[in-house]
Amino acid sequence: MTEGNFTDYVKIKVTSGKGGQGSAHLRREKYVAFGGPDGGDGGRGGHVIIIGDKNLWTLFHFKFKRHYQAGHGEHGSKQTSTGADGADVYMRVPLGTQVKDPETNEVLFEITEDGEEKVVAKGGKGGLGNSHFKSSTNQTPRYAQPGMPGEEVEVLLELKLLADVGLVGFPNAGKSTLLSVITSAKPKIANYEFTTLKPNLGIVEYRDYRTFVMADIPGIIEGAAEGKGLGHYFLRHIERNSTLLFLIPADAKDIYKEYEILLNELQKYNPELLDKERLVAISKSDMLDEELKAEMKVELDKIFVDVEYMFISSVAQQGIQPLKDKLWDMLNKNEDA
C-alpha cells in the first residue's frame, strides 16, 4: 500500500557484483628471466545487504529506485596481489520489514533489530591466480580462474509495524482522535469513513518519563480478512502489536456485536491474533450521562466476561489517564511477575 509518503509494500531487484578474474602473470625481472607464476586472486564481488534502521518508519525511499547493483571485484595482478573486493550496497529498512520471495511468498528473513544485517545477494567469488596451480609437473601454469558471476534476484519488502499497542476498530470509531490526544502524533481526522489510509505511530508519554508506542491501524470493515477494501494491507500491521486496544463508539447500535465482528476478522486473518492481550475502550462516552452509563455497565458486565472494558472520551479527555495506566500494566505485567 502507498499513500502520501507511506509505503509498506514494494518489489525490488538486486544484483550483487561479479568476482574479479585471477591473474595469469609470470614473474619477469631484470635478473630473473624465467620466474614462476605470481598471479594474484581476483577480489570478491560486492554483496547487497539489508540493514535495520530504527529511524525509518516506511519503505517510501524504495518507491523511485527499484534496482540496486553492488560493485564488481577487481582483477588480481602480479606479485600475487589480490584484487580489491567490490563495494557492498546497503539497503536500509525500518524495523519489522519482512523480505519475501515474490514467486512463492515465502519469508526469507525479517529485520527486527536496529543495525541487524542480512545478505540478500552474495557477491561472486574471485578467481584464483595462476600461483595456485603450480605443481612439480607444471611449474609455469599460464592460466587462472575467471571470477564467479554475481546473483540477480527479485525480492518483496513488506513492512509490519512494530508497536506496543495497536488500535483496532471500524472506520470513524475515533482511533485517530485518541492517538492525537494520547500521543504527539498528528493523524488526519475527519468525520467520514477511511480518513486514515495509512498506519500512524505515536509515542505515549507515561509517568516518570516512561513511554510506549501506539499504532492507529486503518479501520477494519467486514470482509477485511478476505481482502475486501484494503483489508489485508491493514491487518498485517496488527500482527506485530503486543496488545490490542479495541475502540468501539458509545453510539454503536450493538457494542458487543461490533466487538465480535472485529474479533472474527482478526481470527480469519490469523488465529494467533486472538492470543494477544485485549482491552475494549468505549469511545465518545462524553455523550452519555451517568445514569445511561450505569445502565450500559449492567449489560456490558454480563457480556464482556473474557475482556475488560473502559469508558473514555478523547474530546472531553475523560478516562485517558486510567486508560494509559491499564495499557502500561498490560504491557509490563510479565516483567513485573
TrEMBL record:
Subunit structure: Monomer.
Enzyme Commission no: 3.6.5.-
Residues holding Mg(2+): S176, T196
Function: An essential GTPase which binds GTP, GDP and possibly (p)ppGpp with moderate affinity, with high nucleotide exchange rates and a fairly low GTP hydrolysis rate. Plays a role in control of the cell cycle, stress response, ribosome biogenesis and in those bacteria that undergo differentiation, in morphogenesis control.
Predominant place of localization: cytoplasm
Domain Obg: 4-162
Positions of GTP binding: 169-176, 194-198, 216-219, 283-286, 313-315
CDD domains: Obg (cd01898)
InterPro entries: G_OBG, GTP-bd, GTP-bd_Obg/CgtA, GTP1-OBG_CS, GTP1_OBG_dom, GTP1_OBG_dom_sf, OBG_GTPase, P-loop_NTPase
Cofactor(s) the protein needs: Mg(2+)
Comp. bias (Polar residues): 132-142
Name of the protein in its database record: GTPase Obg
Family classification: Belongs to the TRAFAC class OBG-HflX-like GTPase superfamily. OBG GTPase family.
Domain OBG-type G residues, every copy: 163-332
Region (Disordered): 123-147
Top-level taxon: Bacteria
Keywords carried by this UniProt record: Cytoplasm, GTP-binding, Hydrolase, Magnesium, Metal-binding, Nucleotide-binding
